Amino acid sequence: MIAKKSISKFKNKLDNLKIRKKELVEELENNFSFFSETNDNSSSVIKEDLNKIELEIKNIFNILNNNEIIDTSTISTDIINFGSVVTIMDLETEKIFTYQLLSSDEIDIDNGIISINSPMGKNLLNKKIEDEIIVNDNDFEIIKISKDLNY
Fold first, then answer.
1. pLDDT tens for residues 109-142?
2. What kind of fold does domain 72-146 have according to CATH?
3. 3-state SS class at 91
4. Which residue of 46, 63, 89, 99 is 20 to 30 Å from 57, comparing CA positions?
């Protein structure tokens, strides 16, 4: 599964990778035009970078073509599912956390996006408001379920 809103992020990353690949190919061609021992070492580095980019491109194609696309704006807020935005409170510290549960390919910790397969994600799935969960010896209470993070 992948969130519909993530498709544009993956397509942008794919476009950037294709541009970088083209730049590296041109650089590699230039190295062959002016062959020297120094350029040979540089060519090896460029080839390694090209291989990494090719793997990333294949991975993104795989993500885009082999996942069910979920419109997270239509999910229920009665129970926590893929795409849910969940606000929880640490019962000991009373600190509040908000996470959106998406796939492992969409993780963005800085923006509160965690994997449904993470320990927190697994514990939150299928829970409701006021349910309590324990993750890494910490007790949390679910205080809100919503449809989408606004970032």
1. 999 999 999 999 999 999 999 999 999 999 999 9
2. Chitinase A; domain 3 (3.10.50)
3. coil
4. 99
Give the bridge partners for 3, in sequence order: 70
> Distance between CA 42 and CA 62 in Å, rounded?
30
| pLDDT single digits (tens) 12-55 | 999 999 999 999 888 888 776 655 545 566 778 888 999 999 99
Amino acid type, 125: L
Residue 139, amino acid: D
Q: How far apart are CA 68 and CA 149, in angstroms?
A: 20
Whole-angstrom Cα distance, residue 56 to residue 25?
16
Taking a C-beta distance cutoff of 8 angstroms, is the pair 115, 103 a contact?
yes
In 3D, which of 137, 19, 145, 3 has the Cα closest to residue 68? 3
Helix 7-33 vs helix 37-65: crossing angle, to nearest 10 = 160
Q: How far apart, in whole angstroms, are the C-alpha atoms of residue 89 and residue 140?
A: 5
